[in-house]
Specification:
Helix content is 38%, strand content 22%. 43% of the residues are buried. The longest helix is centred in the first third of the chain and has 18 residues. It folds into three domains: 232 residues, Alpha-Beta Barrel (TIM Barrel), CATH 3.20.20.60; 76 residues, PK beta-barrel domain-like (M1 Pyruvate Kinase, Domain 3); 117 residues, Pyruvate kinase, C-terminal domain (Pyruvate Kinase, Chain: A, domain 1). With 472 residues, the chain is an alpha/beta fold. The protein starts with 7 loop residues before the first strand and ends with a strand. Helix 1 runs parallel beside helix 12, helix 2 runs parallel beside helix 4 and helix 7 crosses helix 9. Strands 1-2-3-12-13-14-15-16 form an eight-stranded parallel β-barrel, surrounded by six helices.
Length: 472
Amino acid sequence: MRRTRNAKIVATLGPASSSKDTVRQLFLAGVDVFRLNFSHGSADDHRARFATLRELEQETGRPIGILADLQGPKLRVGTFANGPVMLIEGQPFRLDLDATPGNAERAGMPHPEIFAALVPGAELLLDDGRLRLVVETCGPEFAQTRVLVGGKLSERKGVNVPGVVLPLTALTAKDRRDLALALELGADWIALSFVQRPEDVLEARELIGNRAAIVSKLEKPSAIERLDEIVALSDAVMVARGDLGVELPAERVPAIQKRIVRTCRRLGKPVIVATQMLESMVDSPVPTRAEASDVATAIYDGADAVMLSAESASGKHPIEAVEMMNRIIEEVESDPLYRQLIDASHTSARPGGDVAEAVCCAMRRAVGLLQAAAIVCYTSSGHTSLRAARERPEAPVLSLTPNIDTARRLALVWGIHSVHIHDVDDVRQMTTIACEIARREGFAEVGQTIVAIAGMPFGTPGTTNLMRIATV
């Protein structure tokens, strides 16, 4: 079950990929973490998918990560009395709290938080930015706007307010119900949608505690303004380019994506690049060349994972999409330029770092000098393996842990191959088990060198302080 690549694949389950056989094929094709989108599907749907994934995990003996993606405060216009309306450039258009079905002159928008934050001159983007309005006058219950870019507007279309920090929590009442279900079922990662500020992550942390790890989805310009703070508080980050590309000019998104990836690399936090990566494969069995280049760019930049959304959830070719993404990653990682770029983007250790940083820095140098076949990390919390992955070493990282929750979470992290084992008592036993598992899992052959790192005393989180070099 060993992957022949370092970057990971996240795939969304949905109507096209809910059967046990399809889920199994997706896993065998290369999926490392499965995403359950709580914007869609019932509680029973999610329960069934959780059960399928845990059965597959037992069958394959390979820890599988599950990411529960919460909907977040999605803002929408209300309904229309006679179907879609046509907005003409320059015409006035009123938005208000009135729930009465709208027409070509007004529409309801049941979000008082938006009206509280609006000021004259603010822009509103409707239907993924296809229509643009500018606020001329506003109050706590209305906004009188003028149409800048017109078009057809259907009911329940999304509303974006670029450049405005809305007084909204990242967790709606629906999100709290979905979060409770996800934690009950045992989700490994919880994705927070529309994070605007560090306080959103802290609010979620109070509810989640240590029961799951948090992925902050960066899709609001206000989040980019406080990027370092949000990344530092998160366990991982997702570059959610959909809404980010609505609220910001499209030409700015590539640079922001690279900035987010660099920040995560520097702070040692896993980063997922998502949205429309192989979008044409929703209908086509092959991607466009531009999409293949998009996936490749994320890998060259050093992203931990790339994600499929509609391609695997509702597309016609979910297996082929995963296989294609797998091949693109393998091709990039076999390119000599890839290793040069990864090494060039490495954040060097600075004086004043901690012991774990020193051990992992030494590990990376030792692996390069000795041409070691594998790195073996013993970890209970995942801290040691995360530090090792941050170094982006040349050898694969075999992560051994007695904690199945840790093993599942690390399925998202670059270069990590997780194995659930029993506790280790001493260094001699650690070395013996490291050599046995490295050989069993296909990472090393007899006579090859491995580098093992761990924390002493064993089982104590955050104590990475030991490196041992051994011959299989």
